[in-house]
Design brief:
The protein is built from eight helices and seven strands. With 207 residues, the chain is α/β, with parallel strands linked by helices. It has a four-stranded parallel sheet with strand order 5-4-6-7, sandwiched between helices. The chain has a three-stranded parallel sheet with strand order 1-2-3, covered by helices on one side. Helix 8 (178-188) links the parallel strand 6 and strand 7 (195-197). The longest helix has 16 residues, at 121-136. The two termini are 20 Å apart.
Amino acid sequence: VKDGFDLYLEKNPDFRSSIHVAVEDSTTSELGRGISAVRRLMGGEKPDAIILALSPLVEALKGELDKAQIPMLSVIGSDATAGMDFGFKFWVQAKREFSIVAQAVVDRGQERVVVIATVQISSIQRRNGFLDALRDLGAEKRVIESLEASSTEELSTLAAKTARLKPDAVVNLLLNGHSGLFARELKRLGYQGPVYGSVVLDDEAEI
């Protein structure tokens, strides 16, 4: 998100001269740090807008941002902005995003599908969106296993379990760092079928 914003400012120098940007960094594992950073910004000179790129951060702060009437622009996979008066999400809804995957599974005749997600809101909502979309197509029984990873240490075990199941397809909804590790471990174990995923898998570091 920051790189995209910097690129826009670089290409639009006139806009750069009229805007002040403050950047704070946070991760899902350092959620408290992110919450403190946003509250610190809100406690000073009121910002005209705040851009957030972590679903748990949006979930934790949306009430405060709405109360302060600060426009919040988010680039997230979950639907955490639902019900906000001042929140806007630059992404499709989780179910709509993964209805495309569900349709592909049906069209390609993939009868045995394993889904793996993690204990994070965007991952869980994408999984639920995929399952709901399959249900709408009358194809929910194609999911033979729905797995959930809560740590890096679990990935090898879950990859081994997935490989033993010999699925026709895998839906990989893990987050940055984990999605690539899981996919590579699956390949090492001999799995050669398709792996569906979110935009996370487009990252060169993951592939």
